From TrEMBL:
Residues 215-309, 338-422 form a coiled coil. SMART domains: KISc. It comes from the Eukaryota. One of its GO terms (molecular function) is ATP binding. GO terms for biological process: microtubule-based movement. ATP binds at G520, Q521, T522, G523, S524, G525, K526, S527. Residues 422-767 form the Kinesin motor domain. It comes from Apiotrichum porosum. The keyword Nucleotide-binding applies. The keyword Cell membrane does not apply. Belongs to the TRAFAC class myosin-kinesin ATPase superfamily. Kinesin family. The gene is KAR3. Keywords: ATP-binding, Coiled coil, Microtubule, Motor protein, Nucleotide-binding. This is Kinesin-like nuclear fusion protein. One of its GO terms (cellular component) is microtubule.
Length: 779
C-alpha cells in the first residue's frame, strides 16, 4: 500500500527532473472526495500536505534559485513524505474513532466493491432496511456471502464491541466496532423476517425483545456515526482549505516554473554567447599558441646565438684570466716599486720640511726685497717720466724731421716730374677685338722697342711699316719710327698703365695742376683708357687716379693735412660747353669761361659736387655718362665727336706746418681725330660741322702745345682759338703737368689715321718742358 501510494505520488514523468511539475503532481494532492481515492490516502495526503506546508514553502524559492531544486523537492516533498505520511496516517486512522478503516477493510476484502458514500451512510443510519440492503448487497457480492450472513444471524448475542474486535484486526481500538457491525449488518426484525423469513420466522419472542435492545444500541451507533460524519465534514472543509492552499502553491510553482523556464532560456542564450566567446577564446588561444611557437623558435635561435656568444665570452674570459695572471705579476712588481717609492717619499718629505724652513727664510728676505722693490719702483717711475719727456721731445723732433722730409720728398718728387717733363706722351695700342680678327686687311705692322732698354733710357720706340704706291705705280714700303715717354702694347692692362701716371695723382695733392688727355681716332680706346670697364681690373685712369688721391689724402692726415675735393664734368661739342652734372635732362644753359688775375679758371653756371669718397665719384661718373647718352639720343650719337673734361679740384690745409695748396686734376677724353675725308661726314652738314669743329679744336690744341714748346710762354699762345684750349688754359700754361695718351688702333685699315695720330703725339712730345709751379704753395 505504501509502495502504491509512493508510486501514485511519484511524478509521472522524469523528463524535467530538475523542475517540479505542478500539473502532474496536482492529482495526488487532490482531496479524496474529488479524485475518488480511499479516504485514508486522501487524509494522509492532506495531513502530509499540512505537515509539509512549512517545509514546502522554502521549496519554491529553491526552485527559483536552481533548475534542479524543484524536481528534487518535488520528489522529497510530495512523493516520499506522502508515502511515509500515509503510513503514519494509517496509524492515526487506526487511532481515529471512526469505522471507516474497517469499512475499507471489508470493501477491500470484497473484490471490486466501491466504498460506501456519505449518502449511503446517512441512508443506513436513517433506516434499518438500508442496512439490511447493504448487508444483502455485501452478502451477495461474494461466494461466501451466505456463510457470512449466517454468521451474522448466528451472532446476535455477541456484543458489538466483541464483534468489532473480531471484525477488525487484533489490537485495533474498539471504536472501529460500529464499522464492523455495520458490515455485519444488524438488521431490524421486519426486513430480516421479510428477506430471511424462511430460516428465522420461527424465532422466539425473546429474541424480539433483545432486538429492541439492539435497536437502541444501533441508534446509539447511528448517533456515533453522525458525530463521525460531522468530524469528516470538518475534515473535508479543512481539506478544501488545504486544497485551496495547494492550488495557490501550485500557481506559485507554475510561476516559478515559468520564471525558471525564462531563466533557462536566458541561460541558454548566455550559454550560446559563452560558447561563441569560448570559440573566440579558443581561436585566440590557438593564435597565441602559434605566436608563442614563433617566439619559441626565435628564442631558440637567440639561445643558439647566445650559446655561440657564450663560447666567445668564455674564450675572452680565458684570455682575461691570462691577462689577469700577467697583471698580478705586474702588480707584485708595482708593489715592490711602491714600497721603494714610499721610502723615497719619506725622504722627500724630510726634504720638503727642510725646504719649508728655507721658504720661511726666503719670505723674510722677500719682505725686505719688497721694500727695496718699492723704492726701486719709485725710482723707476721717476725714470719713466723722464724717459717719456725725452721721448716726447724726440718724437717732436722726428715729426719735425718728417715734415721736413715730406717737404723734401715733395720737392724731389716734383723735381723728378719736372725732369721727366711737364708734357709727356704715352702711346697705347689697343688689342684687336674679337670681331676684328677676321678683318680682310688684317693687323697693321707695328713693332715695339726693347722694354728693358726703354725703362733704362725712359724713352720707348714704336715702328710702323706701311706700303704705298709711287707715282710710277711701284709699291714701296715705308718704315716710320716714333719715340714717346712710354709705349703700351696691346698686352698691357689698365693697372700697368696707371702705375706710370700714379705719381701725377700725388702731384695734385701737392698742389699742382695735372692734365691727362686721351687722343686718338674713334674706336682707338680713349674711353677705355680714361674710364675703363666695370670690373676692378678694367677700371680706367679716372677712377684709379681719384681712388689714389683719396687714399693718399687719408695717409697725409697723419702729417696734418686736411683735404677737400669737388668735381665737375663738362662736355665740349661744336665749341659749346655742356654741363654733364646739370639738373635737367639736357643742358641748355650758356656757359662762359672766365680766368681771373690769379690765373684761376672758372666756368659759369656749372655744377661742382663735393667728393669725399670713391662711391661719390662713381655716382658722378655714372650721372655724367647717362646725361651723355641722353644727349646722344637727342642729338645723334656724338660721344665720339665731343670732348669730355672731368675736373677734380683738390684743396689741402696743414695747420701744423701752416701750409695750404690747391691742385686740379683734368682728365680729358678727346673727340675722335678722324680726317675730314675719312670721317664719313660726306654731305651731312651736321656731321661736317662736327668734324670741322673737332679738327679745329684739336689743331688749336696742337698749336697751343707747339707755341708752348717754342718757348712762347712770354709770347702769344693761341688759347682762345678753341673752347677746348681755353678750358684747358690753366692746365697747359706751363704751370701744370700734362700727359697725353695717344690711343692707336691695331688694324691695318686704320693705319693712315694711326700714323696721323702718332705724328700729332710726336709734335706734343717734342715740346720743351716748362717748369711747373705749385699753386699757393709756401714751400
Ligand atoms: N686696351 C684695351 N683693351 C681691351 N679693349 C679695349 C682696349 N681699348 C679699347 N678697347 C675696346 O675697344 C673698343 C673701342 O674703345 P673706345 O670706345 O674706348 O674707343 P674710343 O676711342 O673712346 O671711341 P670713341 O671716340 O668713339 O669714344 C671698346 O669696345 C673697348 O672696350
Amino acid at each position: 500500500m505504501a509502495e502504491e501510494q509512493e508510486n501514485m505520488m511519484q511524478p509521472p514523468t522524469s523528463r524535467l527532473p530538475r523542475l517540479a511539475t505542478p500539473t502532474k503532481s496536482a492529482p495526488s494532492l487532490r482531496p479524496p472526495s474529488v479524485v475518488g481515492r480511499p479516504a485514508p490516502l486522501g487524509l494522509a495526503m492532506t495531513v502530509a500536505g499540512e505537515k509539509r506546508k512549512t517545509p514546502s514553502s522554502p521549496v519554491i524559492p529553491t526552485a527559483k534559485r536552481t533548475a534542479s531544486g524543484p524536481s528534487a523537492l518535488g520528489k522529497s516533498t510530495l512523493t516520499k513524505p506522502t508515502a511515509s505520511t500515509a503510513r503514519k496516517a494509517s496509524g492515526s486512522a487506526a487511532a481515529a474513532p471512526t469505522g471507516r478503516r474497517p469499512a475499507t477493510r471489508s470493501s477491500t476484502g470484497s473484490t471490486g466493491s466501491t466504498p460506501p458514500s456519505n449518502a449511503a451512510m446517512r441512508a443506513s443510519s436513517r433506516s434499518g432496511s438500508a442496512l439490511a440492503t447493504s448487508g444483502r448487497r455485501t452478502a451477495s457480492g461474494s461466494s461466501s456471502a451466505s456463510s457470512t450472513a449466517t454468521t451474522t444471524r448466528t451472532r446476535p448475542a455477541v456484543a458489538p464491541p466483541t464483534r468489532g474486535v473480531t471484525a477488525s484486526r487484533a489490537g485495533r481500538p474498539a471504536r472501529k466496532l460500529p464499522i464492523s457491525t455495520t458490515a455485519a449488518g444488524p438488521s431490524r426484525p421486519k426486513p430480516v423476517a421479510g428477506k430471511s423469513g424462511i430460516g428465522t420466522g420461527m424465532a422466539s419472542a425473546a429474541q424480539f425483545k433483545s432486538h429492541d435492545g439492539r435497536l437502541e444500541n444501533v441508534e446509539k451507533m447511528v448517533d456515533g456515526f453522525k458525530e463521525l460524519l460531522e468530524q469528516e465534514k470538518s475534515k473535508i472543509n479543512s481539506l478544501q482549505t488545504s486544497h485551496t492552499d495547494l492550488q495557490t502553491i501550485l500557481l506559485n510553482a507554475q510561476n516559478t516554473e515559468r520564471e525558471a523556464r525564462k531563466d533557462l532560456s536566458s541561460a541558454s542564450e548566455e550559454l550560446f554567447v559563452m560558447r561563441a566567446a569560448h570559440a573566440r577564446e579558443v581561436d585566440d588561444l590557438e593564435r597565441q599558441i602559434q605566436r608563442k611557437d614563433r617566439e619559441k623558435r626565435g628564442l631558440e635561435e637567440e639561445l643558439g646565438d647566445s650559446r655561440d656568444e657564450l663560447g666567445r665570452e668564455r674564450e675572452v674570459v680565458r684570455e682575461l684570466k691570462q691577462t689577469l695572471a700577467q697583471q698580478s705579476t705586474q702588480h707584485m712588481t708595482l708593489s715592490a716599486q711602491l714600497t721603494a717609492s714610499q721610502a723615497q717619499l719619506s725622504a722627500l718629505q724630510t726634504e720638503v720640511e727642510r725646504a719649508t724652513l728655507a721658504v720661511s727664510a726666503m719670505k723674510a728676505e722677500l719682505e725686505v726685497g719688497k721694500e727695496k722693490a718699492c723704492e726701486a719702483e719709485k725710482r723707476a717711475d721717476q725714470s719713466v717720466v723722464e724717459v717719456r719727456e725725452e721721448c716726447d721731445r724726440k718724437v717732436a723732433a722726428v715729426e719735425e724731421e718728417l715734415r721736413a722730409a715730406e717737404s723734401i720728398r715733395r720737392k724731389l718728387h716734383n723735381q723728378v716730374q719736372e725732369l721727366k717733363g711737364n708734357i709727356r706722351v704715352f702711346a697705347r695700342v689697343r688689342p684687336a677685338l674679337a670681331h676684328e680678327l677676321n678683318n680682310p686687311e688684317g693687323l697693321a705692322d707695328i713693332a715695339y722697342g726693347d722694354e728693358r732698354l726703354a725703362e733704362e733710357t725712359g724713352q720707348s720706340h714704336l715702328t710702323v711699316k706701311s706700303r704705298s704706291e709711287s707715282a710710277m705705280g711701284k709699291e714701296r714700303e715705308q718704315v716710320q719710327q716714333f719715340q714717346f715717354d712710354r709705349v703700351f702694347q696691346p698686352k698691357h692692362g689698365q693697372k700697368a698703365v696707371f702705375e706710370e701716371i700714379s705719381m701725377l695723382s700725388q702731384s695734385v695733392l701737392d698742389g699742382y695742376n695735372v692734365c691727362i688727355f686721351a687722343y686718338g681716332q674713334t674706336g682707338s680706346g680713349k674711353s677705355w683708357t680714361m674710364e675703363g670697364g666695370d670690373l676692378s681690373d678694367d677700371l680706367g685712369m679716372i677712377p684709379r687716379a681719384i681712388d689714389m688721391i683719396f687714399t693718399v689724402s687719408r695717409q697725409l692726415k697723419d702729417r696734418g693735412w686736411n683735404y677737400t675735393m669737388e668735381g665737375t664734368f663738362l662736355e665740349v661739342y661744336n665749341e659749346v660747353i655742356n654741363d654733364l652734372l646739370g639738373s635737367g635732362q639736357f643742358d641748355t644753359k650758356k656757359h662762359e669761361i672766365k680766368i681771373d688775375n690769379d690765373n684761376k679758371m672758372t666756368v659759369t653756371d656749372t655744377v661742382s659736387l663735393p667728393l669725399s669718397n670713391t662711391e661719390q665719384v662713381s655716382m658722378l661718373l655714372e650721372r655724367a655718362r647717362s646725361r651723355r647718352a641722353v644727349a646722344a639720343t637727342l642729338m645723334n650719337a656724338r660721344s665720339s665727336r665731343s670732348h669730355s673734361v672731368f675736373s677734380l679740384k683738390v684743396k689741402g690745409v696743414n695747420p701744423l706746418t701752416d701750409e695750404q695748396c690747391e691742385g686740379i686734376l683734368n682728365l680729358v677724353d678727346l673727340a675722335g681725330s678722324e680726317r675730314l675725308d675719312s670721317s664719313g661726314a660726306g654731305s651731312n652738314k651736321d656731321r661736317l660741322k662736327e668734324t670741322i669743329n673737332i679738327n679745329k679744336s684739336l689743331s688749336a690744341l696742337a698749336d697751343v702745345i707747339g707755341a708752348l714748346g717754342q718757348g712762347q710762354q712770354g709770347g702769344h699762345v693761341p688759347y682762345r682759338n678753341s673752347t677746348l684750349t681755353r678750358l684747358l688754359q690753366t692746365s697747359l700754361s706751363g704751370q701744370s703737368k700734362t700727359l697725353m695718351f695717344c690711343n692707336l688702333s691695331p688694324l691695318a685699315a686704320h693705319l693712315g689715321e694711326t700714323v696721323c695720330s702718332l705724328r700729332f703725339a710726336t709734335k706734343v712730345n717734342t715740346t720743351p718742358a716748362g717748369t711747373a709751379k705749385r699753386n699757393n704753395g709756401k714751400s
